[in-house]
Write a sequence for this structure.
C-alpha cells in the first residue's frame, strides 16, 4: 500500500506591493472600506512575471529545500485559472524551466479550490504506487484578468504562487477528503470567456474575459455550503474536532473565516490568515498560507500536526482535505 506525504513547502510572490491607499488613488474606494469588508490591506501585483514564472520559482525552491535532482520528479500539477496560455500548459512550462525531463505535467482548473483538487489528485497518483514524487503548485496572475475600472473586484485579488513536494511514504498522512462542484451556480463567478468569432460564427457568442463576481451570492455560498461540507467531513471521518490543529481556508475574506469558524463550532484562533498581505490569490492562497506558516514555525513539517485545508470558489467548486503534516 502506498501513501503520500507533504515533504516540502514553498511560496513566491512578485515583489511589487500595491496597498489599499494606492488603489484609492486610482478608483473610488478607501482603505477603511476594503479592510472592514474583507480584511485585505495589500496585495502583490506582477509587473511582467507570468503565472509560469511564479510557479517555476516555487518549483526551484521546493527542489532546493529537498536537495532533489529534477530528474527524480515524476509529475507536476499546476492549479490555475490564469495560465500563461492554454497550450503549452503552465505545468509544461515549469517542467521545461526546471528540466524535470522525466515528469509528466498538466494544469488543473478549479478556481479557488484548484490547489485542494490538485493535491487530492496528486495523492491518488502516488497512492497508485506508480509514482514517487510530484510537485503540486497553485499559481495565479489574477491581475491580468481584473477589470481595473471595477472597484467591486479590483480591490480583492492578488498575484502569487505556492506549492508542495508530495512524496511516497510508508504511513498514512491524508486522513479524509470531500470534494464538490455545482456547475448550475457557475454564472455567479466567471472569467476568461473568449467569443466564438470565426468567419463561420453567427456573432451571438460574446467575450466575457474579465473576472466578474456576484459577491453576495459567493459570500452566502461560502458560509452555508462550505461550512456544511466541513462539518460533514469532520463528522463522517470521525476525526475529533479538537484534534484539528489548524484550519487553512481559501483566503477570500476575513469575515468568511469568522463565520465559518462559528458555524462549525471550531476555535477561531486555529484559522490561519494572510489575506491582509496578499488578497485573494485563488488557487495559490492555501499553499502560500501553508508555506508561510511553516516558515514562521507555527506549522511544523514532521511535527505530527493535523490540518484541514478548504478551497471554495468558481465553478462553483469547494472541497476539503484533512492531512497530517
Ligand atoms: N470600495 C468602496 N465601495 C465599494 C467597493 C469598493 N472597492 N466595492 C463595492 N462598493 C460598494 C458597492 O457599490 C455597494 O454600494 P451601494 O450600497 O451604494 O450599492 C456597497 O459597497 C456594498 O457592496 P456589496 O457588494 O454589497 O458589499 P459586501 O459587503 O457584500 O462585500 C465582497 C463585497 C467583499 C465582495 C463580499 O461580498 C465577499 O467577500 N464576497 C465573497 C468573495 C469570495 O469569497 N470569493 C471567493 C471566490 S473568488 C474565486 O473563485 C476566484
Amino acid at each position: 500500500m502506498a501513501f503520500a506525504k507533504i515533504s516540502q513547502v514553498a511560496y513566491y510572490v512578485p515583489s511589487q506591493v500595491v496597498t489599499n491607499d494606492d488603489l484609492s488613488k486610482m478608483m473610488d474606494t478607501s482603505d477603511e472600506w476594503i479592510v472592514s469588508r474583507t480584511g485585505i490591506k495589500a496585495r502583490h501585483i506582477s509587473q511582467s512575471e507570468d503565472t509560469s514564472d511564479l510557479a517555476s520559482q516555487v518549483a526551484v525552491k521546493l527542489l532546493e529545500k529537498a536537495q532533489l535532482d529534477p530528474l527524480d520528479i515524476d509529475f507536476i500539477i499546476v492549479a490555475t485559472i490564469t495560465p500563461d496560455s492554454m497550450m503549452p500548459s503552465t505545468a509544461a512550462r515549469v517542467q521545461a524551466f526546471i528540466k524535470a525531463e522525466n515528469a509528466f505535467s498538466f494544469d488543473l482548473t478549479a478556481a479557488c479550490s484548484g490547489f485542494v483538487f490538485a493535491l487530492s489528485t496528486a495523492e491518488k497518483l502516488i497512492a497508485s504506487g506508480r509514482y514517487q514524487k510530484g510537485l503540486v503548485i497553485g499559481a495565479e496572475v489574477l491581475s491580468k484578468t481584473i477589470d481595473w475600472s471595477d472597484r467591486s473586484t479590483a480591490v480583492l485579488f492578488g498575484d502569487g504562487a505556492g506549492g508542495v513536494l508530495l512524496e511516497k511514504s510508508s504511513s498514512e498522512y491524508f486522513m479524509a477528503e470531500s470534494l464538490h462542484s455545482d456547475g448550475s451556480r457557475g454564472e455567479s463567478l466567471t472569467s476568461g470567456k473568449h467569443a466564438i468569432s470565426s468567419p463561420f460564427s453567427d456573432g451571438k457568442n460574446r467575450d466575457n474575459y474579465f473576472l466578474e463576481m456576484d459577491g453576495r451570492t459567493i459570500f452566502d455560498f461560502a458560509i452555508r455550503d462550505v461550512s456544511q461540507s466541513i462539518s460533514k467531513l469532520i463528522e463522517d471521518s470521525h476525526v475529533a474536532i479538537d484534534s484539528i490543529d489548524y484550519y487553512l481556508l481559501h483566503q477570500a475574506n476575513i469575515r468568511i473565516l469568522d463565520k465559518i469558524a462559528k458555524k462549525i463550532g471550531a476555535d477561531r484562533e486555529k484559522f490561519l490568515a494572510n489575506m491582509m498581505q496578499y488578497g485573494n490569490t485563488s488557487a495559490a492562497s492555501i499553499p502560500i498560507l501553508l508555506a508561510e506558516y511553516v516558515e514562521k514555525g507555527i506549522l511544523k513539517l514532521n511535527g505530527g500536526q493535523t490540518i484541514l485545508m478548504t478551497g471554495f470558489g468558481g465553478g462553483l467548486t469547494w472541497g476539503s482535505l484533512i492531512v497530517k503534516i
Residues 29, 33-34, 37-38, 111-112, 151-152, 155, 189, 215-216, 218-219, 222, 252-253, 256, 280, 282, 313-314 surround acetyl coenzyme *A (CB under 6 Å). The first strand starts at residue 3 and ends at 12. The longest helix spans residues 215-237. Residues 139 and 282 are 8 Å apart (CA to CA).
